[in-house]
Amino acid sequence: MRDFEDVEYILAALPPSATGQIITSYVSVITGPTPRAGGPGELHIVLLDNGRQDLASSDQAEAMQCIRCAACLNVCPVYRRVGGHVFGHVYSGGIGAILTAFFWPEERAKELQELCSGCGRCTEVCPAGIDIPGLILDLRARIGRKPPLWRLAARALRNPRPYVSLVRLLQAPWARDGFLDGGPGPVAQWTRSRSLPTVVRKGLDRRAGGFSVSGRPRVAFYGGCLVEHVYPEVGEAAMKYLARRGHGVFYVAGQGCCGAPARHLGVPHDAEAMLRQQVDLLAREEPDFVVTVCPTCAKYLREGLRGSTVSVMDLSSFLVQRGEFPDGGRGRVTYHESCHSSDGEATRELLERAGFTLLEMREPGACCGFAGAYSFQFPEISGEILADKLADIASTGAEAVVVDCPGCLLNLRGGLRKKGSSVRAVHLAELLLELD
Ligand code: SF4
Question: Distance from the CA of 273 to the center of ligand 1, in angstroms?
Fold first, then answer.
């Protein structure tokens, strides 16, 4: 801060973000020595650097904008479960993990940064606009522990076919009715709070690899890993629904992972290679749009295709922007807005205009606790976050919870099954096709 004008900004941002007050109760202003007014003749200010200069000159300098309002902590699903003591004395939550890396031995920050699930709620509320999850991913890439299993997982996504076959073999002893309720290694703990769907024998490429209908605009459909190997029916539903509306939708053969899981595991080189591969593959087809049913894939592909003529959209935004609204919806539904969703309002509009009664949860945008590999890394934290989400869903009295992310579908459907709930979890694409 250089002068009072800078102070004004902080005073306007800090109390509303911290405690919801319009203004703070008091502000101390130190004006300097005042010997003639009978005050002190000298004023000594001791500034402790404690790593701040290193931070200011690093690629994480954005974290210096933090005014310690704690708004990010109020909404952080992990902080809400584990509390402040876990983060130590520097500062808590995601921003605390970043600051700890500069203000305290880096070893501590290695552990703390792992706690971030990357949901992004913190950035939505931060008055300083700090991209906390983005900085954490950069920190993770630099200092994060990368156990061999995570490295293998990231590598496997570059060419998943042989690994998918291996997973199918490994899951066989536990598979019942398309779900696992126990399993080897981290799956055992994961499945204490939810059932895990099995990897299917015939993935989307085998079920709908040749899907192609002519029409305008030309829409390349992108499934993503979970749709490819766990929920091919969701991908098929989206393609059929678009085709019935006259769009020239086609499945791009050879598609794979967009790189998001590898980026979140702290292996950015693998992530970039995967994203580049997908972007090249899609751009070669020269579609007007790439439509996905996964908001995380959409987010990464959008970044990769920035500057090109191809628009990447999720299914609901694509339909709403073109004014294509379904009808025939009946019954009470609630909507879980996934963390990486770019436009939850589009899905709400589709549901309401279709005729469903939309019952909002208390926190529709709160993370469901999946976050990909995170839920296997921290199954207990993830399970508790899921339990809160399931309670929120139940409190609405809805018959179904609608999602537009296959990861949330996996987590919520598995959680509802484990609880024996009658509430159905359904992906928007499946629901739309049912209305047709
Ligand atoms: S990161 Fe943003 S929201 Fe969190 S304490 Fe700092 S200024 Fe407040």
Answer: 33
Ligand 1 is surrounded, with C-beta below 6 A, by: 17, 66-72, 95, 125-128, 130, 132
158 CB burial (10 A radius; 0-12, 13-18, 19+): middle
Atom of ligand 1 nearest to the CA of 132: 1
Q: Given pLDDT bands bounded at 50, 70 and 90, which one contains residue 300? A: very high
| pLDDT (0 to 100) of residue 422 | 97
CA of 197 to the centre of ligand 1 (A): 37
- Segments of 65-148 assigned E as strands: none
* Mean per-residue pLDDT, 112-139: 96
What local confidence, expressed as pLDDT, does residue 194 receive?
A: 98
Report pLDDT digits (tens) over 371-393.
Answer: 998 999 999 999 999 999 999 99
Strands 179-180 and 196-197: what pairing?
Answer: antiparallel
Q: How far apart are CA 415 and CA 418, in angstroms?
A: 5
Taking the centre of ligand 1 as the mean of its atom positions, its distance from the CA of residue 126, in whole angstroms, is: 5
pTM tops 0.85: yes
Residue with token string 């650097």: 49
Please report the pLDDT score of residue 173 as a whole number: 93
Q: Measuring CA to CA, which residue among 68, 61, 131 is closest to residue 101?
A: 61
Q: 58 CA to middle of ligand 1, Å?
A: 19
**Which residue's alpha carbon is nearest to atom 6 within ligand 1?**
66
Residue 69 CA, closest ligand 1 atom number: 8
Nearest protein Cα to ligand 1, atom 7? 66
Going from N- to C-terminal start, the domains of the chain cover 4-143, 146-436
Residue nearest to ligand 1 atom 2, measured at CA: 126
The CA 128 to ligand 1 mean position distance, Å, reads: 7
Lowest mean pLDDT among 23-32, 298-307, 366-375, 407-416: 23-32
CB burial readout 55-66, b (16+ within 10 A) else e: beebebebbeeb
Q: In angstroms, how far is the first alpha carbon of the chain from the final one?
A: 59
CATH topology of domain 4-143: Fumarate Reductase Iron-sulfur Protein; Chain B, domain 2 (1.10.1060)
